[in-house]
Write a sequence for this structure.
């Protein structure tokens, strides 16, 4: 039997959302599953609720962190506890269609791969949007060149417009991963931002084959308070840590010059996040002159200094072209002002 393990990190989530999430797993039509709830030292009743849910189904296991360790470590704890042959990751405020496990097992039996990537839905206050498929047809990425293409797709996606019905290819929540990859050393890297992107790169590199299937299972609850909009006083450190890890990946696996050049697309997005989340966020209590100065200094450091030279503006989506021009002219305040008033043009939802 192909046992599927669902790993659910839990931290400060609405109790009704958590119940909906867990019952979507308990009620899977395919029964050979296990459910790992990882309470990441949530300060509310989430930990107690996890224990209560465990009593309802003997396939549920619960782990309690003694301190808040973050999403990557919560997932790693779940990986270490699970005994399933296949692992999937579900955020505690989201849910899955009831036929998810059954359909994925059917895919495994039809054509074996190390990773299966699927799609889902975005849920906006009761309105459900079907997410667009990334590829026009089902695809098996089995050669090195094909898997490299899949890795590089994450970099290239940073230049595109993010629309409400998109589901980022790198999301850990839309993939089923063979236990064998974790046995070889695959894990989530402990960063504060973009942990899914790093997992996408490393898991694809570890895999011998990755299959993309054109089916939707995952329901992503789009809530207010996005990380993109919140004030993050350490935003620049968080962004640099991700860029450092991407460069480490590229150098470890000898990625070619084109791959490395395209890292600048991620760096440009990191620059934007630094502006939105810190330097020109309303909560940053410094003068415009100082904000400008700090941006200028940051963007001349190692991970950002070659961004404008490595990016071709003609390859960018319209909203990114506008940002490129404004950032190159150091009109960060204007870019931030336009973004706050033209959310359709400056799409900001992320996943």
């Amino acid at each position: 039997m192909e046992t599927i393990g669902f790993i659910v990190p839990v931290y400060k989530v609405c109790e009704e959302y958590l119940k909906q999430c867990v019952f979507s797993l308990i009620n899977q039509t395919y029964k050979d599953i296990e459910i790992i709830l990882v309470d990441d030292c949530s300060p509310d009743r989430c930990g107690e609720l996890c224990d209560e849910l465990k009593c309802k189904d003997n396939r549920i296991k619960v782990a309690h962190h003694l301190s808040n360790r973050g999403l990557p470590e919560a997932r790693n704890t779940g990986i270490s506890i699970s005994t399933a042959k296949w692992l999937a990751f579900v955020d505690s405020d989201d849910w899955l269609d009831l036929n998810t496990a059954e359909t994925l097992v059917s895919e495994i039996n039809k054509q074996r791969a190390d990773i299966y990537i699927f799609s889902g839905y975005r849920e906006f206050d009761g309105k459900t949007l079907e997410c667009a498929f990334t590829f026009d047809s089902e695809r098996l990425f089995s050669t090195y060149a094909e898997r490299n293409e899949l890795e590089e797709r994450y970099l290239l996606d940073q230049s595109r417009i993010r629309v409400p019905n998109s589901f980022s290819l790198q999301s850990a929540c839309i993939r089923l991963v063979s236990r064998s990859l974790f046995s070889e050393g695959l894990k989530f890297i402990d960063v504060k931002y973009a942990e899914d992107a790093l997992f996408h790169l490393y898991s694809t590199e570890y895999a011998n084959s990755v299959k993309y299937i054109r089916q939707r299972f995952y329901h992503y609850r789009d809530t207010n308070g996005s990380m993109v909009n919140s004030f993050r006083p350490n935003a620049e450190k968080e962004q640099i840590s991700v860029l450092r890890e991407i460069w480490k990946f590229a150098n470890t696996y000898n990625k070619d010059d084109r791959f490395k050049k395209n890292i600048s697309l991620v760096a440009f997005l990191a620059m934007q996040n630094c502006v939105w989340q810190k330097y020109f966020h309303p909560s940053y209590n410094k003068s415009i002159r100082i904000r400008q100065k700090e941006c200028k200094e940051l963007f001349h450091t190692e991970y950002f200094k070659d961004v404008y030279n490595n990016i071709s503006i003609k390859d960018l989506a319209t909203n990114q072209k506008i940002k490129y021009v404004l950032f190159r002219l150091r009109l960060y305040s204007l870019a931030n002002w336009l973004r706050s008033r033209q959310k359709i043009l400056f799409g900001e939802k992320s996943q």
About this structure: Residues 344-351 have pLDDT under 50 and may be disordered.
